[in-house]
Design brief:
The chain is of the alpha/beta class and about 210 residues long. It contains 9 helices and 5 strands, in the order αββααβααββαααα.
Length: about 210
């Protein structure tokens, strides 16, 4: 089993314009879903990136930030980012929101082939899509996209923390941790919480009843 990503899948499915896609933020109770697409043209990466890029969850926060700056300033890397806000998630649902984010992140590039992390499937116009379970541990393109998505979302959540510091978004970035749930019980949901998610929906209903 692979312990680090490589270009095997990119070479198997062919072409220099092959995009990897990954997302951050499917599970949290607050904030957006961020989807990133990434194409490493000619499979050219510096030795630093080759040795450092991996599934974003396996990299420290500080290292992710450093890699993000290098990645987004590397001329051989093309990337796109889609941000699907919590209000859209509430309106159309999680699955449709993820699909929208995937398509929006890559559609401007008119890709022929996309490697997508996980087992979920989505149709992209005029594009062959391949779903790869644990793709962020197997493909450099997907792993690079995972870093872009994770850092972008973390930065958004830090901005949200500045607006609503009482929830501790800078610590849990919206996930349903003990701290987050305690703050929700104390303050109720804010405008960035996903009202369609069961814990938030129940809390919202409880607060509405209390103020009637």
């Amino acid at each position: 089993m692979k312990t680090k990503p490589d270009f095997e899948f990119e070479k198997i499915y062919g072409g220099k314009e092959i995009y990897g896609i990954d997302e951050a933020g499917l599970g949290p109770l607050a904030g957006p879903i961020v989807v990133a697409s990434c194409c490493i043209q000619g499979f050219q990466l510096s030795e630093e990136l080759l040795s450092s890029i991996n599934d974003s969850k396996k990299i420290s926060k500080k290292k992710r930030e450093t890699l993000f700056e290098i990645i987004t300033n590397t001329s051989s890397i093309k990337y796109g980012i889609s941000i699907v806000e919590n209000t859209i998630i509430d309106e159309i649902g999680l699955s449709a929101s993820w699909k929208r984010g995937v398509i929006e992140s890559v559609i401007e590039f008119n890709p022929e082939i996309c490697l997508i992390d996980g087992s979920r499937r989505v149709e992209i116009p005029n594009c062959k899509t391949i779903s790869i379970v644990k793709g962020d541990q197997k493909s450099y393109s997907i792993a690079t996209a995972s870093i872009i998505a994770k850092v972008t979302r973390d930065r958004i959540m830090r901005k949200i923390h500045e607006e609503f510091p009482e929830y501790g978004f800078d610590k849990h970035v919206g996930y349903g941790t003990k701290l987050h749930m305690e703050m929700l019980m104390q303050y109720g949901p804010c405008k960035y919480h996903r009202k369609s998610y069961a814990p938030i929906r129940l809390l919202t209903n409880s607060f509405l009843k209390y103020f009637k």
